[in-house]
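EI: anyone free to look at a 133-residue chain?
SC: sure, send it
EI:
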Amino acid sequence: MEYSTFGRHVAVDAWGVDFDLLNNAEALQSQMVEAAEACGATVLSVQAKQFDPQGATVLVLLSESHLSIHTYPEKGFAALDCYTCGETVDPQLAIDYMLAVLKPTASHAKKLVRGMGELQVVEPVMKQAELVK
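SC: here you go
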């Protein structure tokens, strides 16, 4: 079987996010797994680290690549990224899901199209997903 090298990598800086949300690795881990599943990705493993005095990192290893967040609660800032290989899983859906969770007052994003030769940088269409609970 031959696999495509095509992939999409969405990176977002989110500002104005609630301190307590950014400082809870356990809650972020749960939301990140839900975001990965919402975009159709296959979760292989999860690593989460709560930092002292504050901050968290969560890495969700996907069969299709990864979803990650690094937080700086004291600044209301989160760095999110999702990279997926192939055509079937859209990383933008995971990012949109997480933006709906984080509810930033401002966000800045770029999408890289990878694996097709020269990297292409495009402006992603950002939508905050509707969360159903």
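EI: Residues 109 and 117 are 22 Å apart (CA to CA).
SC: 👍
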